[in-house]
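Duplicate of #3305? Posting structure anyway:
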């Protein structure tokens, strides 16, 4: 849906998803990117009464293979924008490239279903670290996590990422897309072009889009 307040709409959806799991642990996979940062800062600020962070397990949907204190680290973004503000969580599972994918594959496999996977959209149509023409797009169905990289080099660093099978473990995928620069990619997704973001499947896939990124074509947002 097209929203005026994207971080607010994101926060409302996460709170609503949390409320559906009373008394259960809540598993959320964080994204990287500046849209995500704004969403997490608002979530941290507005959810104190609605979310018991002590039952929340944090994962990541993708990570750059850099040190955890590197400015490009998605873990650092998540910690600064959210985790450090909400206090103790039940568990935090950062992706660590040096540990290989098997450890994270096992962790995601043990969880079964993730309650929320948060995804962004790149102007090239990528999501998480699933880039156009990249190897991880064709990962085996049993592979939930993969190393990957952008064959064009436009998106820096080797990556670790959930695959489509890993993302499909989500009860709810929330895409957040902001800014006019993303409109062409979003319009292409809406028009059915085979971009990485268009292939995402899960229990429910929700698109939250601000007015600047909203498609002008007739296709409307993906259902
Ligand atoms: C990454 C992100 C990536 C991001 C999009 C949107 O590690 O780069 O996971 O998929 O979500 O590129 O990023 P912006 O919100 O900064 O445009």
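Output from current build:
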């Amino acid at each position: 849906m097209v929203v005026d307040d994207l971080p607010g709409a994101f926060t409302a959806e996460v709170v609503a998803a949390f409320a559906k799991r009373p008394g259960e642990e809540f598993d959320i996979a964080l994204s990287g990117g500046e849209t995500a940062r704004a969403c997490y800062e608002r979530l941290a600020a507005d959810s104190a009464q609605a979310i018991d962070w002590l039952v929340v397990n944090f994962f990541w949907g993708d990570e750059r293979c850099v040190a955890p204190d590197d400015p490009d680290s998605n873990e650092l973004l998540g910690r600064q924008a959210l985790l450090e503000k909400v206090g103790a969580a039940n568990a935090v599972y950062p992706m660590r490239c040096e540990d290989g994918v098997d450890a994270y594959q096992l962790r995601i496999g043990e969880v079964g279903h993730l309650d929320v996977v948060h995804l962004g959209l790149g102007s090239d149509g990528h999501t998480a670290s699933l880039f156009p023409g990249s190897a991880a797009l064709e990962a085996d169905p049993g592979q939930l996590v993969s190393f990957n990289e952008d064959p064009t080099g436009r998106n820096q660093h080797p990556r670790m990422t959930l695959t489509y099978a890993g993302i499909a473990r989500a009860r709810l995928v929330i895409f957040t897309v902001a800014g006019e620069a993303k409109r062409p990619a979003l319009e292409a997704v809406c028009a059915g072009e085979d971009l990485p973001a268009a292939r995402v499947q899960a229990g429910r896939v929700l698109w939250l889009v601000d007015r600047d990124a909203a498609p002008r074509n007739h296709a409307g947002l993906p259902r």
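Confirmed duplicate; merging threads. The beta strands are 2-3, 26-30, 56-60, 62-64, 91-92, 114-119, 145-148, 159-162, 170-177, 204-210. The chain has one domain: 2-210.
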